């Protein structure tokens, strides 16, 4: 196990921490990387955020999110997201595909549209030096949030494009259950853009999006997944990304301390 040199705190984990405090908190805790969200960056200011992180000596490990390809104006919004990632020196723009169109039931057609949409963005992203990362979400989100539901489906899309242009997100929360998980991680060699961790806890809350927990509080065995990710050649950042109201209500510095204490369980 390595130390914290590849540890990144995704800002969603400490949602109630304004950006300046989140950056300062990472520095104080010895966390070298931070994953950012476009909404908070826009609220603080893109150029101000870039300077804030740079002056603090942190690395932006990813920008979340682009995608939602069925929304009005998706093309321009995603091009802006690519430009924002480049300004922040974020190597990865995470793409959440979006769910079925209103009244739609043809999930296969929706996935084909996602692949086509990403293809229109690849030239701009490649010119900007930003890798597009297709994130599969757990199947319970397929209807309304993300029609890409398995790592295999994400790779089916990514493999249409050069490896440096389009990769995939490996997020333990969304893929731990998949019986083809280790086969697909091996298949993802050269295309893993970012590795994200948090735990699967039950019972799920009414808002299923907020059902994530600290590493070690749930049902995921992390070390074999981490070993497989490393065996696939990924040697990059590991982001802790948690959506959970009770964790958001916890003092953020306490949350960071908990995250750090659970780091050995990741097996990174």
SSE blueprint and pairings:
Blueprint: E1 7-10, H1 19-29, E2 33-37, H2 38-44, H3 46-56, E3 59-67, H4 74-87, E4 92-96, H5 107-128, E5 131-134, H6 151-158, E6 166-171, H7 172-175, H8 181-187, E7 192-197, E8 199-200, E9 212-213, H9 222-231, E10 238-240, H10 245-248, H11 252-266
Parallel strand pairs: 1-2, 1-10, 2-3, 3-4, 4-5, 5-6, 6-7, 7-10
Antiparallel strand pairs: 8-9
Helix pairs in contact: 1-3, 1-11, 4-5, 8-9
Structure in words:
The chain has 268 residues and is of the alpha/beta class. It has one domain: Divalent-metal-dependent TIM barrel enzymes (TIM Barrel), CATH 3.20.20. Helices cover 42% and strands 17% of the residues. It is built from eleven helices and ten strands. Helix 1 runs parallel beside helix 3. The protein is globular, with a radius of gyration of 17 Å.
Poorly predicted ranges: none
| Quaternary organisation | single chain
Q: Given the helix and strand composition, which structural class is it?
A: alpha/beta
Question: What's the mean pLDDT score?
Answer: 97
Instruction: Give the H and E element order.
Output: EHEHHEHEHEHEHHEEEHEHH
Q: Could you describe the largest sheet, including whether it forms a barrel?
A: 8 strands, parallel, barrel
Classify the fold: give the CATH topology: TIM Barrel
Helix percentage: 40-55%
Based on DSSP secondary structure assignment, what is the total number of beta strands?
10
Name of the top-level CATH class: Alpha Beta
Identify the strand order in the major beta sheet. 1-2-3-4-5-6-7-10
CATH superfamily: Divalent-metal-dependent TIM barrel enzymes
Q: Any idea what the shape is?
A: globular
Distance between the termini: 5 Å
What Rg is obtained from the alpha carbons, in whole angstroms?
A: 17 Å
How many domains make up the 3D coordinates? 1
Helices, by number, come to 11
Strand content: 15-25%
CATH architecture: Alpha-Beta Barrel
């Amino acid at each position: 196990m390595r130390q914290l040199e590849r540890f990144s705190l995704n800002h969603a984990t400490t949602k109630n921490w304004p950006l300046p405090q989140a950056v300062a908190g990472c520095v104080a805790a010895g966390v070298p990387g931070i994953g950012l969200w476009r909404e908070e960056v826009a609220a603080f200011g893109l150029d101000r955020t870039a300077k804030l992180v740079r002056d603090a000596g942190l690395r932006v490990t990813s920008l979340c999110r682009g995608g939602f390809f069925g929304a009005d104006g998706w093309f321009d919004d995603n091009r802006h997201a690519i430009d924002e990632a480049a300004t922040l020196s974020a190597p990865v723009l995470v793409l959440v595909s979006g769910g079925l169109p209103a009244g739609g039931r043809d999930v296969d057609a929706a996935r084909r549209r996602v692949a086509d949409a990403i293809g229109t963005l690849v030239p701009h992203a490649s010119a900007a030096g930003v890798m597009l990362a297709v994130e599969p979400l757990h199947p319970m989100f397929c209807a309304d949030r993300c029609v890409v539901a398995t790592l295999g489906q994400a790779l089916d899309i990514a493999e249409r494009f050069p490896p440096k242009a389009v990769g995939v997100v490996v997020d333990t929360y969304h893929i731990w259950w998949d019986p083809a998980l280790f086969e697909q991680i091996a298949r993802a060699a050269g295309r893993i853009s970012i590795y994200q961790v948090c735990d699967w806890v039950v019972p799920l809350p009414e808002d299923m999006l907020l059902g994530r927990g600290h590493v070690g509080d749930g049902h995921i065995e992390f070390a074999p997944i981490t070993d497989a990710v490393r065996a696939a050649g990924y040697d990059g950042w590991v982001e802790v990304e948690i959506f959970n109201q009770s964790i958001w209500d916890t003092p953020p510095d306490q949350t960071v301390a908990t995250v750090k204490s659970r780091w050995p369980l990741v097996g990174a």
